[in-house]
Design goal:
Number of helices: 7
Distance between the termini: 73 Å
Shape: elongated
Radius of gyration: 26 Å
Strand content: 5-15%
CATH class of the largest domain: Alpha Beta
Structural class: alpha/beta
Number of domains: 2
CATH topology of the largest domain: Rossmann fold
Helix content: 40-55%
């Protein structure tokens, strides 16, 4: 007989997973209290990097069922969620998400749902990249200097260049100006 596990995740210590536990029970899943796994960890942390979730993965076996209230309990990154569901499916574990109508994400319909979610996530990521690149191009075109501001003024940089051409070592100049050797090398490369 299939064992049913519940995974409840909250992001901060002042939050409580009790509502998630009640939702799972109200949906008709009979979960033994020792099979409810709760933890406090950010959803941006990959599932495989979460202590309690990793223990849960080690406990489940073929034929078991894992229930979550929402997809974001597994993670906020669609690719991580998809990978997690695929890993569980490969082990013969069904994953049910209550917010998606209790759908088994490892079934044909669940895989389609996961595919749509992954496609939307990829689309959003691509839009973000496009907007970022457009903003960088606009900033460059308007003469804005990109990147971290230099630790040294233009006058100090000119002095560093002159001193290097006179033979001063990287170590000496880095100590004198209170910057790293790499900072001195970057100034040299800008000649």
């Amino acid at each position: 007989m299939a064992r049913v596990f519940g995974y409840c995740r909250v992001s901060t210590a002042d939050q409580n997973p009790e509502n998630q536990i009640h939702e799972i029970q109200a949906a008709g899943f009979q979960v033994d209290s020792k099979r409810i796994v709760s933890e406090t960890v950010s959803g941006s942390t990959a599932a495989r990097e979460r202590k309690e979730f990793t223990r849960l993965i080690d406990r489940v076996e073929e034929g078991d069922v894992l229930v979550v209230t929402k997809l974001d309990r597994l993670g906020r990154n669609a690719m991580d969620v998809r990978s997690t569901v695929e890993t569980l499916a490969a082990e013969g574990v069904k994953v049910h998400c209550l917010a998606l109508g209790g759908a088994d994400l490892t079934s044909a319909a669940g895989k389609m749902t996961m595919g749509v979610i992954a496609a939307v996530a990829e689309f959003e990521r691509d839009l973000l990249i496009e907007r970022t690149q457009a903003g960088l191009r606009r900033a460059k075109a308007s003469g804005k200097r990109l990147g971290r501001p230099s630790a040294l003024t233009d006058e100090q940089q000119a002095l560093v260049k002159r001193r290097r051409s006179e033979g001063a070592s990287l170590g000496t100049l880095s100590k004198e100006f209170g910057v790293s050797r790499a900072a001195i090398q970057r100034i040299e490369r800008r000649r």
